[in-house]
Amino acid sequence: MLKLPALFYRISFAVICLALLGGLPMAGPLVAAPAPDSPRLTPVVRTVQQVAPAVVNITSTRIIESLQPNPLELFFGPGFDFAPGRAQKQKRVSLGSGVIVDGARGLVLTNAHVITGSTEVMVHLLDGRQFAAVVKGAEPDFDVAVLAIKGAHDLPAVTLGDSTDIMPGETVIAIGNPFGFNHTVTTGVVSALDRTIRNGNGVFTNLIQTDAAINPGNSGGPLLNMEGALIGINTAVDARAEGIGFAIPVNKARRVMADLMKTGRVAPLWLGIMGEDLDRRMAAALDLKDVHGLLVTSVAEGSPAALAGIVPGDIVESINGSSLRDRRDYVNLLRNQTRDSKVSLGLLRNGQREGLSLRPVPFDNATVTQLMEERWGLSFGPGKRGLVVTKVRADGPADFLRRGDIVTAVGGTAIKTMDELLDIFRKERLASQILLQVLRNGRGYYARLVL
What we know:
The chain is α+β, with helices and mostly antiparallel strands. It has helices at residues 6-20, 43-51, 73-76, 112-115, 250-263, 280-285, 304-307, 327-335, 365-376, 418-428, and strands spanning 55-68, 86-102, 107-110, 120-124, 130-139, 144-149, 159-160, 171-176, 184-199, 202-210, 222-224, 229-237, 245-249, 269-270, 273-277, 294-299, 315-319, 322-323, 343-349, 352-358, 361-362, 378-382, 387-392, 406-410, 413-414, 433-440, 443-450. The protein has 10 helices and 27 strands. The longest helix is centred in the N-terminal third of the chain and has 15 residues, at 6-20.
């Protein structure tokens, strides 16, 4: 028998000890990779292997300020203010997903709600690398945001598909970060197309519905077809049910991304329609069973609505197949359209229903300013504490205001610039009344415009 020197045994024993203590990797069992023609390499597996490196997990950090309670309240009861509490700052980290759509520039598509209010955004790749990212633009009305990864180039990227040829029933794959479980893969089918959902943040239209499992943390991740192409950005689930998730079509996300990269925002649109809610009295006069829709009161000259033949007295009942509940619904549905998309209106005219197809146009600041001055009877100029009233129409709804009054908030939203005011008017242009917060001679009060 061959005798080995004692030094060999001492070295071997040391190596084994190091391995057991974690100092050296222990060799695991050798597992052969599946053959290229193995039935295990299904289309789903191949797609995941192809696309997973382009999927990122996103952590966003927000600073939350809260008031630390005064400990003396334990003895003297709530409200004891001899020694008031101190403001306390806390970090709150939220999880989400995203997908790299431009590897050369390190651009990531995700949801706006994933990074809202964040002070720091980090992206984590499948290979273990992590990078800081900056927000290039975010649009809550579409729930789309674009991130740029710092210091990273030539990254893997997904192929952008075409969401116009999606077929209900076709197999789809979702990859994301649900509840912090990195790069989780789920599969399902396209359940339906052109869905509309409403929540506290607005109305989202043209969504893809899928039964692929989508959970908190999946937001912003990719919805893929079996060719590995991106067809949607996962955005929401219906909490009342299982297997009902929604994704933003990639064509819409691509258009929003282009606007965000070019101007930092998506151009607001309009059709040139002004109107009011259809109430029970009007519905009874028109012999209508349901009280919903927008009664057209005026149409801007040369606008898409005017060119399409819409006239005062028409009732807009739906937009792109989504039934209108009221004037706010009308505004919110339009806010979720992009500039090159067509809008289908369902109209009721003289008791007859018909459909029209219109293409919205940009609702630019000049048009908004003119419309605001006509509807509110006010003109504004810049000021240090808000916007200064420069002109009041004598017979207008704001005839009780004076030149020099300072408007600091509209409808509970603080304003300092004309752009902020015009954005509020875009949202509230059909409102029947508006609450203003006004400063006059250093004293503040509220004023209500009845329109």
